[in-house]
Design brief:
The complex is a heterodimer of chains A (301) and B (289). Chain A is an all-alpha fold and 301 residues long. Chain A has 13 helices and no strands. The N and C termini of chain B lie close together (12 Å). Classes of the chains: A mainly alpha (301), B mainly alpha (289). At the A-B interface, helix 1, helix 2, helix 4, helix 5 and helix 6 of A face helix 2, helix 5, helix 6, helix 7 and helix 11 of B.
Chain lengths: 301, 289
Amino acid sequence: MTVLSSVRRVTLRPRRRLTPALLFLAPSFIILGIFVLWPILASLWYSLHDWTIGAKEQPWVGLANYVELLNDSRFWGAFIHSVVITVFSVAGIILLGLALALALANDGVGNRIIRSAFFFPTVVALTSIGLVWRFLLDPDLGLVGAITRSLGLGNIGLLQSPQLALPTIIFVNIWRNAGFVMIILIAGLKGIPEDRYEAARLDGAGPWKLFRYITLPALRPTMLFGTLIMTIQSFQIFDLVYVMTGSGPLFATDTLVTMLFREGFVNFRTGYAAAISWSLFVVIVIISALQLRFFRYNDVD
Amino acid sequence: MSTDSYVRTPRTRSRRASWSPAGAAARWVFVGIGLVFALVPFIWMLSTSFRTERSLFGSPMSLLPTEWTLAGYLGVWQQLPFLRLLFNTMVFAGVTTLLTLLFDSMCAYALARIEFRGRTIAFWLVLVTLMVPFQVTLIPVFVELFQFGWLNTYQGLIIPRATSAFGIFLFRQFFISVPRELDEAARIDGAGHFRIYWQIILPLAKPAIATVAILNFTALWNDLLWPLVMTSSPEMRTLPAGLALFGGQHVTDHAVLMAGAVISILPIAIAFFLAQRYFVAGVATTGLK
């Protein structure tokens, strides 16, 4: 192609052309449309029916599924467990992550290797982690059972106890995710200019004051971000519970997503499960909105 | 995308070098206890996979097997359709990741480098889907796949997951940072959008490709809920789904179960040790908001 003709093409071509853009967007948007955007609405539609997959007629029931949900003690149990898991997990993950980040912030070879050890659990399948911890905590076979026996505490079945199973799930969730927060906080720590510390030291600030008045405020956006991610992730907990306790004992560890799974894909109450999923959706949107407001407030700061 | 600065930061001079002796001691105790907690489960998993039943019952306190056996690793092939599980997981995670890389980068190219009407709305739609928890779509997608006749098939496992809003977002951030002069020059030479995308932008985007590929592959390889719901026969299960269901049935076969867990972790562990900086880059990028 000669230079002349290509120059002409450039000038003749209208600036805003839809076709190439559409071709580039099509694959992703078709998939997102069919498998993400449309299902959000479909989910709402199903939740207003006594929906049975494959049935000819789907009886309209209005808000009956939601009314049933509000009167279902299982639902409230699952909701409260999800909230408890989220609150305690996030607090533990952030505190532990912060402590690890402060302890391992320097870029020595040793610290890098130790960081990897803490980061590794966050990339491993939760299924495998759940299976390993279930065995570790097994009162007869596991290491923890052996330790409690040797201490004279007897066989403690942490996952078999209705009181202790939920705290144990929370513990494993913290164990798994603290490394994630550690990594983002170390990235945050590196963003703090050294001269701020120098200036404060000249003013006679001790280690605690440096932490309180320089490190902590500078890390706030990163910590809020970690809180957001971990809140959403913990609220949607499924794998650990499914593998470690199967929602038991006596539904003591049932969460919203395990309940959704049970109603939708074990009991095949599609309409009811859709109502659960919409409730989950609304709660998560509220949490995200609250935390995003928090963010914006912080950006102005 | 300034992820690399998060990965390798040579400039950090020891800001915290001024640990007092007591502080340093406390730090080492804390880190030491933390390391024990972080590592022991994995060591225990590895050793239990090589252990005989008698060794486990006889001395559950010991971290190393008193009697070694490969029975766990042999049992995994006999008691599970393990080769099939492994194959399914590779197909699911591998093919889905490849498609995601292609579709996400194309979509991001349009959002970052082509001016068209509705671009802002398109980008907002991507951000909206980024915020939708995937469990909310689970039931309708199941119904859709039922209607397509795609339940318990590879296309059913793969196609709905073949794009990710996060990947689009990440690629877009990267593409925006590529200087405009590059494609202006190419356009003068007569290159269309497809050539600019394929020959100029993509080759520059290798760090972004690596990050999205690793994050996506890991997430899919580890995923439990999705394959659990969308497959029903043992021949179509992936490793996490197969192991979770197996663990639910055969509680006593500890060595087999741990061997399965070890093998399922292995590819991700190898990738982690070879390419840790991309894992870190992914995490740090999510931290950029």
